[in-house]
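Case 82 in the screening queue. Each case pairs one protein sequence with one candidate compound; here the compound is zinc ion. For every case the pipeline is the same: read the inputs, emit a complex structure as tokens, and attach any notable structural observations.

Predict complex for case 82.
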Amino acid sequence: MSNVPAQRATAHPASLTQAGTSPSGNCPDCGSDRMTALAMTLTDGTPVQFASCHECEHRQWTHEGSALEFRDVIARATKLKI
Ligand SMILES: [Zn+2]
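Case 82 output:
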């Protein structure tokens, strides 16, 4: 009984074209163009684009074309008063 569910996360097809334009092209770290970009909104309402590299797992956020510091993103994202 080797009925493995469809959960093979090994090789994704290279056709995962997300909506929207690619962030800034290539990864600033390794130069790979295998970047995934997502649009998201921080807790304070700032719309940002999150991009992550599949090769080296570099991650970056950009807002209106300029890169955000990771700590800045965290600071904005943790403005919740609990
Ligand atoms: Zn990279």
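Case 82 observations:
- The first strand starts at residue 35 and ends at 41.
- Residues 9-23 have pLDDT under 50 and may be disordered.
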